[in-house]
Amino acid sequence: MSRRRTLLRALTVFLLALLFPAATGAQAAGGVKPPLQTAGRVQCGAVQSAILKRPVRYCALLPPSYDTAKTRRYPALYYLHGLYENEQSLVNFGGWNLVEELQEKKRIGEFLIITPDGGRSFYINARPSTSLRAGDGKERWEDFFIREFIPAMERTFRIRAVRAARAIGGSSMGGFGALRFAFKYPHLFNSVGAHQAALVENPSQGLSETVAPMLGRLTGAFGTPPDLAYWRAQSPFALARNAAGLSRLKIYFDCGTEDEYGFHVGAKALAVLLRSRKIPHEFHLYSGGHGWLYVADHLEDSLVFHSRAFGLTK
Fold it and tell me: Which of 32, 47, 83, 285 meets the CB 3.0–4.6 Å disulfide criterion with 173?
């Protein structure tokens, strides 16, 4: 349970920083304070999007040698956060501590981890709508990510701008987004890793008991009210059934057997579908519910998976 203790310790420090800011020292760039002193650093900023017509915040976890190896270029993992989280969540919940610990133990190599703010977008282009409700049909988050954000990051940081050095991951809503991006753009991503992804194979049967309360609080990503046909069309399941080139991907995903949203059912169904298509993948069901305590126990697994996919470790 050391991984959980690492992330919980960092979360405790973060909460203390909120309660007693004067005692915690200066904030890091973008408002993120590193929970521990580390050799790497976090750099936060924003990308001004012409597609979304607003700035989109991000944080980048830079590896220890980034500021000294001035000519070295690195692989990059784009990590997508869950619902009601933001670009700082991975750092604030202890992800930085875990990354540094794994690097020190040589469990993973050095690569950037970049976390954009996805809001409640589910990382899709929102369903076009005739509704007058603000936000409906206007958030083209997928177009922003592919056309603007990745190119901006590859200009801003010393990233190897090739497929072999590009990975995507996430948890919950971010796991949905990561699988979807990887399955739709296998020519862009070398590997994908998802924890407790928001997977529902047949929303007409299971949505009311699992995801409907959550979707009802969204700002029109799937329409208002949520359009189940649009959900199905945007789902990783639709892409896994029909997309070409998935055998090129290195695929990892896991879920807790007591997931409160029932996403373990969807995860098992996705594994069955991938097996039926003879698409190689690594899938695990672990004991646990839905949330950061579950991620704390298993984030190491996906980070090690990506490091191996990058060819940095064996």
Answer: 83
Domain ranges, residue 96: 2-309
What is the per-residue pLDDT for 138? 73
Please indicate, yes or no, if residue 198 is contained in any of the structural domains. Answer: yes
206 occurs within a structural domain: yes
CB 6 within 8 A of CB 296: yes
Q: What is the CATH number of the domain that holds 167?
A: 3.40.50.1820
Number of domains in the chain: 1
Distance of alpha carbon 44 from alpha carbon 46, whole angstroms? 7
**pLDDT tens digits along 119-151:** 999 999 998 864 434 444 578 999 999 999 999
Residues 174-197 pLDDT 10s: 999 999 999 999 999 999 999 999
What is the residue type of 157? F
What is the pTM assigned to this prediction?
0.86
164 assigned to some structural domain: yes
Q: Would 314 be classed as within a structural domain?
A: no
Question: How far are the Cα atoms of 183, 189, 221, 222, 280 from residue 247, in angstroms, in the given order?
Answer: 10, 12, 29, 29, 6
Please name the residue that has the structure tokens 């990382």: 123
Residue type, 132: L
Which residue, among 98, 105, 146, has the nearest Cα to 124 in the 3D structure? 146
Read off the tokens for 283: 């899938």
